[in-house]
Amino acid sequence: MRAIALALIVCTFVQSALAAATVPEIDPRASLGVVQNWIYNYRTKPDYAHVPAAVRVLFHSQTFKEPENSGIYLGFIAGAIGSNPAKAEQLVNSFFPVPPEEEWVIVRAIAYSGLPDWRNLLRKVAPKMPGRRVMIDGYLNGTQPTLMDIPLEEAKPGMMDKLRGAMTQNPFKKEERKLDTRLSYATHQDLLDILWGYYFATGSRVPIQRIVQMLPWSKSRDTVDKLTIGSMARYTLASYAVRDASLRDYLREELARQSGPVKEPLREVVEAADTVQLGAVRKDAVAAVDELKIKGSDARRNMDFWGQLGVGALALGCVSAAALGQVAVGIPCVIGGSASQGLLSFWEKQQ
């Protein structure tokens, strides 16, 4: 009997040891810097078994206290979930318990994971996060987009739409400021970080392709947001490619395939990575943003130019016809006079 009892004790001890080996424990007081370095190098040496422990450190370090500053970690968790569909549910369950105020991280990471069956996984873990029911339902019913469904930028109303709006809206009605919760890569800088986090977890080219699509904004003089995000896309691509030979090779292949507005900034990325000239990329980005802040957007500068010439107003007949959809205004009819400044003010509000 004593031998049997001893055997049971040994068996229990071995099982406990195996369980501990399956989900390695990391001291929650471990340095966030250690985990950051581990995340950056993960794609070259995947260590799936340690992901739960690393995530616990991230939660313990209150990394997600400011959602807009935690994109790279959210992206990494999403990528880790998506990288192994067979073990995705087991991995997600290993994250719990999660502080209620940070459960949104799990919800969004599942939705952003790219798993073919991410909705079912989200439904399975939903009972553990009753306080996030609204957010969960938003992803399940499609009102909240997944990472790759987020548009690069919101479609802007064309001239005809603006003219129709000018004719149908009451010009004396005070506009109510509404909260804009629409997502786009052009307006949310944290999405760039999420893409990089996803890449670190998977080594996938999909997020890199998305980042490459942002490169033309580095030449944009439209808005500070687009110029900033485009410049950061260009700089981070060059910076990581300096230390990542496979990424550098991929970007070189993309350069041969690309054309149009992507090609020139991508050429700059490849050249900066090959010659390790990151300082030049950074200086150019800072100078461009400063110039835009001082001089304003291209659209604004063009309006100022036409306003100074005194020919900036569309003739009333052209406006009416456009509002009714009866003409397509290619080169607008113009009239001289002081009315130009009034119309310029209208266009400025639309930018």
Identify the notable features of this structure and list them briefly.
351 residues; mainly alpha; globular; disordered C terminus
Helical stretch tally: 18
Mean of pLDDT: 76
Can you give the helix content as a percent range?
Answer: 55-70%
Strand order of the largest sheet: 1-2
Largest pleated sheet: 2 strands, antiparallel
**Principal-axes shape call:** globular
Number of domains: 3
Q: Note the gap between the termini.
A: 84 Å
Total strand count, please?
2
Instruction: Give the amount of beta strand, in percent.
Output: under 5%
Order of helices and strands: HHHHHHHHHHHHHHHHEHEH
- Unreliable spans are 1-26, 299-351
Structural class: mainly alpha
Q: In angstroms, what is the radius of gyration?
A: 26 Å
In words, what does this structure look like?
- The chain is mostly helical and 351 residues long.
- It folds into three domains: 15-149, no CATH class; 205-295, no CATH class; 299-350, no CATH class.
- The chain is 61% helix and 1% strand.
- It is built from 18 helices and two strands.
- The chain has helices at residues 2-22, 32-41, 51-60, 71-83, 88-94, 103-111, 118-125, 133-140, 159-168, 190-202, 206-213, 224-243, 245-257, 263-275, 278-295, 298-309, 316-323, 339-350, and strands at 313-314, 334-335.
- It has a two-stranded antiparallel ribbon.
- Helix 16 (298-309) runs antiparallel to helix 18 (339-350).
- The longest helix has 21 residues, at 2-22.
